[in-house]
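Late entry, S-adenosylmethionine complex.
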Amino acid sequence: MNQPTNQPTNQPTNQPTNQPTNQPTNSLKTAHNSDFFGEKLTKLRQILPEIFSEHALDLDKLKTLLGEHIASNERYGLNWAGKSAAYQALQRPTYNTLAPCPDESVDFDTTQNIFIESDNLEALKILQKSYAGKIKMIYIDPPYNTGNDFIYHDDFSQSKKDYEIATGDRDINGQLLKSFKKNSKDNGHYHSNWLNMMLPRLHLAHTLLTDDGVIFISIDDNEQAQLKLLCDEVFGGENFVADFIWNNKYTVSNDTDVSYQHEHIICFCKNRDIFELNLLPRTEKQNKSYKNKDNDPKGAWKPTSIHARSGSANNIYEIEFPNGIKWTAPVGRYPRYSKDTLMELYHQGALYFNKNGGVDRKTYLSEVRQGVTCGTLWNYDEVGHSHGNNEEFSEIIGKGIFNDPKGTKLLKRIIGLSSNKNSTILDFFAGSATTAHAVMQLNAEDNGNRQFIMVQLPELTDEKSEAHKAGFANIAEIAKERIRRAGAKIKAENPDKNLDTGFKVFKLTGSNFKTWQIDDDNAIAEQLEMYINPLKDNAKEIDIVYELLLKMGLKLTATIEFKDGVYWLNCENKSYAIVLNTLSQDDFNAIITKKPSKTVVLDKAFLNDSEKSNVILQFKDANLNFESI
Ligand SMILES: C[S@@+](CC[C@H](N)C(=O)[O-])C[C@H]1O[C@@H](n2cnc3c(N)ncnc32)[C@H](O)[C@@H]1O
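Prediction complete; structure with ligand written out below:
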């Protein structure tokens, strides 16, 4: 049996390790994310088979082949203490999974929205198989590393886990609650700690994006420069879209030498060759400059000049229009159009002769682009300011319960610029879930059908905080309550629309299988036990089904129906069967007649070995995908 090891390797390396893993990556018996670089290596092998020796990348061959293109030791890039460990954190598989919580959800059986209560590194790893290449837009608002922030410390080694359960840093399901450490500016690793936290998360986010996908990251000057360089490394400098400046304050504080009035929103896409930002809708203000002074039947228009600053003296002419008005370009200016074109415009009624003898071309509102190009300066009167965002949140949940949330106006701008009406949108530093609120609101406004996935750690609220006093034990509780209340409000305001304001809640939990969570201290005893029953004693069937669903690469929104001893899953119009309990040969025959795309059967569901061999043969004969575990 292939047993994944969860020991971090002792060999420091500046690069991701590229030894292919011995684990069968297509088997459900592997941990999540056990082969993050596997797909990349496969692609590399397709282009450069000669640099592989058996299954491993041969660096010497690569150097020989690409000699002059290999960077010297003095090379451009961002380096920091612990970078190689951050790459190891990226590759380290997770032995955790997600368990459904219908009681905390809204419309669990029908909604396409997801809320995951978990550390985001674990969640992103667990989602890799099901959501790789499926997320159109990611927005994140990570801790800015102001010097007062508590930065999450990733450490998932087993020995530490026991310690953390004992000290209350983890709950008994292995959920990390308090592994935050204050990252003050006088800490020698101030930037490094933050970068170590961000690197693996951004890599995993990159894999989740569709080919035309995009990520927006809010940040301020504390880490803007570091974040831009980190994203250059993860997404490729050529995929930088813009550093949008959000003018988030309308006042200047008089108590310091400089008053910061903006934040950055750094935007990178997966592939700049195919990604384009959407246009912004035209505003009433922009349309106001279009009037209809002469009752033109083509509607409102705005005057544009028919002369320009540059041109050739040879092209200067005088023209007399049929209405007797003569025109020549003013001194120092040149005609923008030829005489013939101007005459044509005259006959179309597209010229306006003003009182001062000037002539303008009419630009009709009906003919301009329906949208406008987005600039990089975002003013608070278009996208809201921090003060207003606090008010917006307070109106729904209460004052002082969550500090400095972003606002729905800002998020609607970002979502509108980057998604289409059916896109899936992910925020894995969800905080108070402004992104979910904005997705639902925008869907209500433009009849969209976007879905959201929120990830938020159940970070404990301080006992003295307003949040705690209001009954919110952790931040995930605040986020879920906001979605519930905002969803109900949006629904009530749009009674005629069929809006999805529900969400399915999932929580991080340890694997339901002993096999995938072996503890090295009693490996032999557990391995023997595992042959008899691979499941943990308290494992709930529906949790096992969701764990298998994720390992099969299916979405968390797949529908699940239990019928005749079989869990039938339906995802993207394909059906899948999961069998956890004993079935007869006839029952297996019934599954075969339904031709599922894949059938997964627990070993213990076979009456005996000969039934197992028969069933395997029958699925093979029927050319159906089958796995027993
Ligand atoms: C700046 S807030 C996001 C605010 C959010 N944009 C809003 O409008 O409410 C960052 C959030 O990320 C959460 N967070 C920090 N580290 C995390 C981690 N490792 N996994 C999941 N959430 C995390 C924090 O609990 C915090 O609520």
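The CA atoms of residues 319 and 340 lie 10 Å apart. Will revisit in the morning.
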